[in-house]
Amino acid sequence: MHKKVILITGASRGIGREIAKTLAKEGNRVIANYNQSEEKAIQLQNELKEFGYEIDIFKCDVSKREEVKKMIDFVIKKYGKIDVLVNNAGIDQVKLFTDISDDDWNNIIQNNLYSVFCCTQETIKYMLSEKSGCVINISSIFGRIGGACEVHYSVSKAGIDGMTKALAKEFGLSNIRINSIAPGIIDTDMNQNVNYEEMKAEIPLGKMGKTMDIAKCVKWLIEDEYTTGQVIEINGGWNM
Ligand code: NAP
């Protein structure tokens, strides 16, 4: 893989962190975004440095346009372009549908869906001038099959998959590929309270996924040249 400038949102923990590590170790220029977990982001940067890989870390709440603009400005000023955007940052909330308040709804949509709209819109203009680009959105199995007690989360993730397809059609002739990865259940902080034993029974491969399962697919999507507008499901066969 040629060296690329790759911005990953939500890279301080979980799936985003693994993606950052994997792509940095391939020799890419990685910019790892974080919001609240500064210590973890610094630790990631130092860990990679020990192995000889330099990455940038950048604090930004991706649900806020002004902060996103500052982050993109930083990348453009430093590297002159963004080859790959990985929209990974996201939050979850488990609540009965009847208990979801307007604030809950808006918070999930703002953090999970608006953030993807905003980061992609602020980035894609630079991809257009390069006539090349790759956007990878991390959605979820729940955007495909729906998650009980996670209606707002499911809506936000289905919205991402819709955006992926619409953008792929709009920007295909500009040589910009946009795809989603829809993970099943992956072993991260997000699933701390999940009843794993109960869920396992629904998964044909009988186990949770690892963050590396998603990172490998991200790497493949960056290298590939003929895949766009797809939602790639990585879920141990949970949805088929
Ligand atoms: P995680 O371990 O909870 O990590 C979430 C990451 O997102 C953190 O690095 C967090 O950064 C960042 N983040 C959240 N809100 C942000 C904001 N407003 N601005 C910037 N960064 C923000 O979650 P994960 O399991 O790795 O999930 C990553 C993505 O995969 C999410 O979009 C999630 O919906 C999706 N997903 C996960 C699973 C799963 O089973 N784990 C399944 C399907 C889809 P800070 O801590 O620095 O704030």
Could you explain how this protein is built, in words?
The protein is of the alpha/beta class and 240 residues long. It has one domain: NAD(P)-binding Rossmann-like Domain (Rossmann fold, 3-Layer(aba) Sandwich). The chain contains 8 helices and 7 strands. The chain has a 7-stranded parallel β-sheet, sandwiched between helices. α4 packs parallel to α6. It is globular, with a radius of gyration of 17 Å. It starts with a strand and ends in a 6-residue tail after the last strand. Residues 9-10, 12-16, 33-37, 61-63, 88-92, 111, 138, 140, 183, 185-186, 188-191 line the site of NADP nicotinamide-adenine-dinucleotide phosphate (NAP).
Class per helix and strand makeup? alpha/beta
Bound molecules: NADP nicotinamide-adenine-dinucleotide phosphate
H/I helix tally: 8
What is the CATH architecture term? Answer: 3-Layer(aba) Sandwich
How would you summarize this macromolecular structure in one to three sentences?
Helix content is 47%, strand content 15%. The protein has 240 residues and is α/β, with parallel strands linked by helices.
Please give the structural blueprint.
Elements: E1 5-8, H1 14-25, E2 29-34, H2 38-50, E3 55-59, H3 65-79, E4 84-87, H4 102-130, E5 133-138, H5 141-145, H6 151-171, E6 176-183, H7 196-200, H8 211-223, E7 231-234
Parallel strand pairs: 1-2, 1-4, 2-3, 4-5, 5-6, 6-7
Helix pairs in contact: 1-8, 3-4, 4-6
The structure holds NADP nicotinamide-adenine-dinucleotide phosphate (NAP).
Residues 9-10, 12-16, 33-37, 61-63, 88-92, 111, 138, 140, 183, 185-186, 188-191 line the site of NADP nicotinamide-adenine-dinucleotide phosphate.
